[in-house]
Design goal:
By secondary structure, the chain is mainly α.
């Protein structure tokens, strides 16, 4: 039940050690990070911001991983702490129960020892009483013999005899009563002895359990020390985390300062942007005014073009009419010349008509000149109109692009509505102007119609028109000049607009970048603050838990010290009780009471023994499990040690093989160099072989010739032609013999040299094979990476060896502690032996004191003691029989 409760508590406590950011939230953060990096990948201006953002995210990732690791370690430590705390509690509970059982057993042992001492005293008293009885019986027998010998007794003697007989009867009756009592006491003593033996066995078992429990307590203490070390490590890690948090705070402050600076720059840029916006609005207003002027001028231009076209048509009609009038004037002149004489009366009328004609001619000439000028001006205006249309198209295109950019950048709904209202007003004004122009066109048409009907009126109207045309030419010149100036101003304003729009776009881009940076930095700061708060909350929780655990440990240590003090006090009280029991009375009534008390105590002891046996079984089961765990740990340690040994041996073998290979490579290189030198020498010598070969060929020819001669001579010797005449002579040609010897020696040298050369060639081939194999081996040999890995393995081996050394040192410490404990046990056993010896010596002294007290007793007390002695004699006989 306690374990279940502690597990529930641990589970509730472990819920506090959750991550500040869930895995799902962290996954969303990572996705957002990847999306943001994907968006920022194309912009070259945002690369520094991207790098800083990546650095911040890496720091967040590291913090998240460190948080995971810390939470795992804290959970493991909390679980270990709770598990060890439970073990300590169970061990303390077992220790308390064992101490209580030990105290009860000690009291039982003391009582049993006292009963043994009382039994021994009773046996001694019985022996003395028996001796006294035998003496009394001897006296009685002597008295009876004396009476039989005397045959005659005095009355006084008879009375004494009768009194002695009555006393003997009483003594015998008392003896029988005491005998029965002693038998009962012997039975009780046997039972007590059996119980004492059982108690001793249980005591020995309890001592063994106590030793095991002490060892377990030492182990638990060592585990507590290890937990303290782990706690110190965790505190160190927490300090590192705090340092990291402080560093993050510093970074956050730096980022805040940078953000403040960026805010200041943003404010400055916004002020500049506002100023530029105002300038831009002014430019836009000026541009609008200029556009209105341009539109008005374009309308005027269109009207003028229309009027010019109408005037050109009218001029054509007037020219046609002028031609007609010229024809008619010629006819009139012809008629006038014909009818000068006939129309003298009508001169006045003719003169008036001529004056009118002259005026009309002047007007016609003026109209002609004006028409020519108008045509030239119309051509110029057409050219200018074409140029203006091109410029207007460019301006309109630029305007459209600017409008698009402006609409994309900062065109609000109100400005659009204002533009709509302005455009509607302009359209209304344009419509009114078109109506006016239409009215004027109608008036001109009426005027032309009137001029067609009335020639005189047309001549006057031509003059008025010429004057109007001159005025219009002047006005057109002025308008053209104004248009040129306006175009220049429009160009300048367009350039200013372009530059300002570029600046505006740059500022808007910078503003957007700064806003994004600000938003992202604020988000990062909020996340870091939240993480910092979570970490600080976790740190405070850990501090609180650590304080609580420390307080619990301190309280447990204080309780353990209190229990030890109480144990010492109880031991002192036990010693005092033993002294008091030794100084107690030795009467039979007290013995009976003590026997009844002992029986009750024995029953309680049996109950406690049963309970202790159950607890002992539990302890044994726990010990068995702990032993299995220890065996498993030892097996794991042995496996690890074997693996380390195998790795060591493999490393040593690898190092040896590597050294051997290096030595083989160096030796083979040296051999290769030697072989190369030998090959070079042989090649040099091979140039000297050709003359020797020629000599050998000549010598072989000579040999063949000599052999042929030898064959012929041997054949002649074998089949002689003249036996008696010829006899075989020994050869005595030393030159040929020497030559043959030289030939033989040269053949031998040649054969040996050819064999040596073949051997050398074979060796060279083998060396080349070895060289190629060594090349392959060298190519297969580990490179720098493998050498680095080997160094890493060596470093790992060194660390493992250090850990092994530490484990060995810990083993030595534990062995020393075990030896110390053994010495303590030996000292305790020696003290127990001394106490036993002192106890037996005190018993002997007490027995001597009791013998001295018997000597100073009265007759009645002696008789009582004799009865008790008879009973004790019977008990002693039974005891001897039992011993036999």
């Amino acid at each position: 039940e306690n374990l279940a409760q502690s597990n529930l508590i641990n589970e509730k406590a472990l819920l506090a050690y959750d991550l500040s950011i869930d895995e799902t939230a962290y996954g969303t953060v990572e996705r957002d990070f990847q999306e943001i990096i994907g968006e920022l990948a194309g912009d070259s201006q945002l690369e520094p911001f991207k790098l800083e953002y990546e650095k911040l995210f890496l720091a967040v990732r590291k913090a998240h991983e460190n948080e995971k690791y810390m939470i795992q370690s804290v959970r493991e430590l909390a679980q270990n702490y709770s598990f060890q705390q439970q073990k300590i509690k169970t061990a303390q509970r077992m220790l308390k129960e064992d101490n209580n059982a030990i105290e009860a057993l000690k009291s039982d042992l003391a009582n049993a020892k006292e009963t043994d001492a009382q039994g021994a005293q009773i046996i001694d008293k019985n022996q003395e009483a028996r001796e006294a009885l035998e003496a009394a019986v001897g006296e009685l027998k002597a008295a009876v013999t004396s009476a039989q010998q005397g045959n005659s007794m005095n009355t006084a003697e008879e009375l004494q005899y009768e009194s002695v007989q009555s006393q003997l009867k009483r003594v015998v009756s008392e003896y029988e009563d005491r005998k029965l009592k002693n038998e009962e006491l012997d039975k009780d003593i046997k039972k007590l002895k059996d119980k004492t033996l059982q108690i001793r066995q249980t005591k020995e078992l309890n001592e063994i359990t106590v030793k095991d429990l002490r060892e377990e307590v030492l182990k638990k203490k060592e585990a507590a020390n290890q937990f303290k070390l782990q706690k110190q490590k965790v505190e160190a890690e927490m300090l590192q985390c705090r340092q990291k948090c402080d560093e993050l705070d510093v970074q956050i402050l730096q980022k805040n300062e940078e953000i403040d600076q960026e805010k200041i720059l943003l404010k400055q840029s916004e002020e500049k942007f506002f100023q530029q916006k105002q300038i831009h609005l002014k430019v836009q207003n000026e541009k609008k005014l200029q556009e209105d002027r341009l539109n008005e001028l374009q309308g005027q231009k269109n009207d003028l073009n229309k009027t010019l076209q109408n005037l050109i048509q009218n001029q054509k009609e007037i020219n046609q009419r002028i031609v007609k009038y010229n024809d008619e004037s010629a006819q009139y002149k012809f008629q006038i010349t014909q009818f000068n004489e006939e129309m003298l009366n009508v001169r006045k009328k003719i003169e008036e008509s001529e004056q009118l004609k002259m005026s009309l001619d002047k007007e016609i000439e003026q109209t002609k000149t004006k028409t020519v000028e108008c045509e030239a001006e119309a051509l110029l205006k057409r050219v200018q109109n074409n140029e203006l249309q091109k410029k207007i198209d460019l301006v309109n295109r630029e305007k459209q692009s600017q409008q698009k950019s402006m609409k994309l950048s900062e065109m609000s709904a109100q400005e659009k509505e204002q533009l709509k209202s302005i455009l509607t007003q302009q359209l209304k004004s344009y419509e009114a102007e078109t109506i006016n122009y239409r009215l004027e066109i109608q008036k001109l048409r009426d005027f032309i119609f009137v001029n067609e009907r009335e020639k005189e009126a047309q001549f006057s109207s031509q003059q008025t028109l010429e004057t109007q045309i001159s005025h219009q030419k002047n006005e057109l010149k002025m308008i053209n000049n104004q248009i040129g100036e306006l175009q220049k101003s429009v160009r300048d304003l367009d350039q200013q607009l372009k530059t300002k729009e570029q600046m505006h776009e740059q500022m808007t881009g910078e503003k957007n970048i700064c806003a994004k940076n600000l938003v992202e930095a604020q988000e990062q700061i909020s996340e870091l603050r939240r993480q910092f708060r979570v970490m600080s909350h976790i740190i405070e929780q850990l501090r609180g838990e650590i304080k609580v655990k420390d307080e619990n440990l301190i309280e447990q240590h204080d309780q353990y010290q209190k229990f030890q003090k109480e144990k010492d006090q109880i031991n002192q009280q036990l010693e005092k009780a033993k002294m008091q029991l030794r100084d107690g009375n030795l009467r039979l009534q007290k013995q009976k009471q003590q026997i009844s008390q002992q029986q009750f105590i024995i029953q309680e002891a049996e109950i406690e023994i049963n309970r202790q046996t159950k607890e002992f079984k539990l302890v044994e089961s726990e010990k068995h499990t702990i032993g299995q765990l220890v065996v498993q740990r030892n097996l794991e340690l042995n496996k690890v040690l074997e693996q380390i040994r195998v790795q060591k041996s493999m490393l040593l073998k690898g190092e040896k093989l590597y050294r051997d290979k290096l030595s083989d490579i160096s030796s083979l290189r040296n051999e290769l160099n030697d072989i190369r030198q030998q090959v070079l020498q042989l090649r040099q010598k091979s140039g000297q072989l050709e003359p020797l070969k020629q000599q050998i060929v000549q010598l072989e020819k000579q040999l063949y010739e000599e052999k042929a001669k030898m064959r012929a001579l041997t054949q002649e010797l074998q089949a002689p032609m003249n036996v008696h005449r010829w006899r075989q002579l020994e050869g005595s040609d030393p030159q040929t013999y020497d030559l043959i010897k030289k030939v033989q020696e040269l053949q031998k040298t040649l054969i040996s040299k050819t064999q040596e050369s073949s051997q050398k060639e074979v060796e060279i081939a083998e060396k080349e094979k070895i060289y190629n194999e060594l090349k392959k081996v060298l190519s297969r040999l580990p490179g720098q990476e493998k050498v680095e890995k080997l160094e890493q393995y060596r470093e790992n081996l060194k660390e493992k060896m250090k850990e092994l050394k530490e484990a060995k040192d810990e083993l030595q410490i534990y062995q020393v502690q075990g030896e110390k404990l053994k010495e303590n046990i030996e000292t305790v056993t020696a003290e127990l032996n001394k106490l036993k010896k002192d106890y037996f010596a005190q018993k002997q002294n007490e027995n001597k004191q009791t013998v001295g007290e018997w000597k100073g007793m009265d007759d009645e007390e002696l008789q009582k003691l004799l009865g008790e002695a008879d009973e004790a004699v019977g008990m002693g006989e039974e005891h001897d029989y039992d011993n036999q």
